[in-house]
Specification:
The protein has helices spanning 2-5, 19-26, 42-54, 80-84, 90-104, 107-110, 127-145, 156-163, 170-177, 179-188, and strands at 30-34, 56-58, 64-66, 70-74, 150-154, 194-201, 206-213. The protein is of the alpha/beta class. The strands form 3 sheets. A 3-stranded mixed sheet has the order 5-6-7. It has a two-stranded parallel ribbon with strand order 1-4. It has a two-stranded antiparallel ribbon with strand order 2-3. β2 (56-58) and β3 (64-66) form a beta hairpin. α7 (127-145) runs parallel beside α9 (170-177). The radius of gyration is 24 Å and the shape is extended. 13% of the residues are buried.
């Protein structure tokens, strides 16, 4: 909480103010995203209550900061498991997720979102959508190495098996596990041209990459 509004008197950094309040003071118009707010300390919700109720916030030095032109977006993974349960319909998942949301957050906080009308639920992505996301990431890698005469090939079947895990974290997995193999090969073989064949093993749940020269 001290990072948002500043450290209390007597603590190091007291004169600096808070990250949030200083940012809004400098730029009073903007969009602020607070991701996965369920991980925040409970005291942080008291700050949000003040912002959402009064449209302003007082920092540790006593300066009042105007939030009237600030759009605040919060995300939460509360109820995510219900949307990943294929046996539940979207309506059933929404009902269960809402019940869990009500147990997790105080009513006075939830009601600040336009009487809860601005609380939105996101449905799970269809399999074909997830596959398009992964294919896009692979295409991005190919665009980076095409000028070097290199290409990454992944069969559609491998992408389908890979995407069964769901969308979360998959684009990052591609960057963290396939890209380093390509980069290291280029460093060791700067003049090589050819194709990287990435095959996904469903039992090991990993990609194995082999290289063939043109």
């Amino acid at each position: 909480m001290a990072k948002l509004i500043g450290a209390p008197p007597g603590y190091e950094g007291f004169e600096a103010g808070g990250i949030l309040t200083n940012s809004v003071r400098k730029k009073p118009v903007g969009v602020y995203l607070f991701d996965e707010i369920e991980k925040a300390h409970p005291d942080v919700y008291n700050i949000f209550l003040q912002i959402l109720s009064d449209g302003r916030l007082t920092d540790n030095i006593g300066r009042t900061v105007d939030f009237s032109e600030i759009v605040i977006i919060m995300t939460s993974n509360i109820g995510q498991t219900y949307y990943l349960d294929e046996e539940l319909s979207d309506e059933e998942a929404r009902e269960l997720a809402t019940a869990e949301l009500n147990k997790t957050y105080r009513s006075e906080l939830l009601n600040r979102f336009n009487g809860r009308e601005n609380i939105l639920h996101f449905r799970r992505l269809a399999q074909e959508v997830i596959e398009r996301i992964i294919r896009r990431e692979i295409d991005k890698l190919n665009n980076s190495y095409q000028a070097k005469g290199l290409e990454i090939q992944v069969a559609d079947e491998c992408i389908s098996h890979f995407c069964v895990r769901g969308a979360r974290g998959l684009p990052g997995y591609i960057k963290a596990n396939i890209r380093p193999i390509v980069v290291n090969y280029i460093l060791e073989n700067p003049n090589a041209e050819g194709i990287f064949h990435a095959h996904y093993h469903t039992d090991k749940k990993v990609f194995e990459v082999s290289f063939s020269k043109k």
